[in-house]
Amino acid sequence: MEIAQIYIYPIKSLRGIAVEEATIMECGLQYDRQYVLVKFAEDKPNEPEVIAIKTNSELCLFSTAFHEDGESLTVTHASNPTETLTLPLTPFRDMLSATYPITLFSTSTIGFDMGPQAATFFQNHLSDPTIKLLFIAAPRDPHPVLTPSIAGDGLVKHPQKIRFMDVAPILLTTSSSLSDVTSRLPADSDMVSGGSFDITKFRSNIHVTVPSATPAYDEEFWTEIRVGEKDKEVKFDCTFNTARCLSINVDYQTGKQAPQEEQIYKRMMKDRRIQPHFNYKPCFGRYCVCDTFGAKIRRGDKVEVVKRNEERHVDVA
């Protein structure tokens, strides 16, 4: 097995970037989801609401790219690709203005306002004058901080935190599971491109190619994997399976929900509702944590399953 693709999503819910390598940081992959878009209700000027693709499907029309200078990020919109917004990958303190509290899945942090230029860019494309772009001030403590194990190894705490991800720092997916999802759609579906469903709709960070004989969703039994060559291996603990939302139904070409007959969410509902605490949500992908901060992973790195559960883990401590 090996890493087929690595993806980073610098701004939450916008299109991501395929990269050749990534650095493991305290909050997951470096630069992943360090920005977030928010809007404000008229009667709550100091209480931002996070804008996410599950309720604002047009966010998929924004693309992001790392600039060749290695220090900045460019954002474009499908309606006018020549108009660009440039953002620093590491903003200096004097670039930041007002701060706002942000809460996601019961954990909180502070977001720095990136100023009027960034705000205007998104306000114009999303037709909402209240929108602001925020940079995370400090990492959030993830809600599930334990690695659960049916195998009896106990519960192991991890120091890894998160930025504007939902609940965990790194998401792993596999080729066999993606093939299963793709097979659920008609071959001529607009949701299938190049013979496959778009894995970035699942917000995959690490997409692993597995042998053709590997059953779909085998990763749901993995508890520990190692990536890379001997003596340079990076260990990942696989913590829990990922419940999905309606964002996977979005057509990235139109920025709208796909027609009913091409929506993958309902097709996965038939047999992928495996988490008792999320009875109405299908699962796809495996959340991971890694505390080898500063280590690099690369496309093509070997992946080895070191530990696995005999039963699928279906709960979070």
TrEMBL record:
Residue ranges of domain MOSC in the record: 137-306
Organism: Pyronema omphalodes (strain CBS 100304)
InterPro entries attached to this UniProt entry: MoCF_Sase_C, MOCOS_middle, Pyrv_Knase-like_insert_dom_sf
Entry-linked PROSITE patterns: MOSC (PS51340)
Species classification: Eukaryota, Fungi, Dikarya, Ascomycota, Pezizomycotina
The protein's name in its UniProt record: Similar to MOSC domain-containing protein 1, mitochondrial acc. no. Q9CW42
GO terms, molecular function: catalytic activity; molybdenum ion binding; pyridoxal phosphate binding
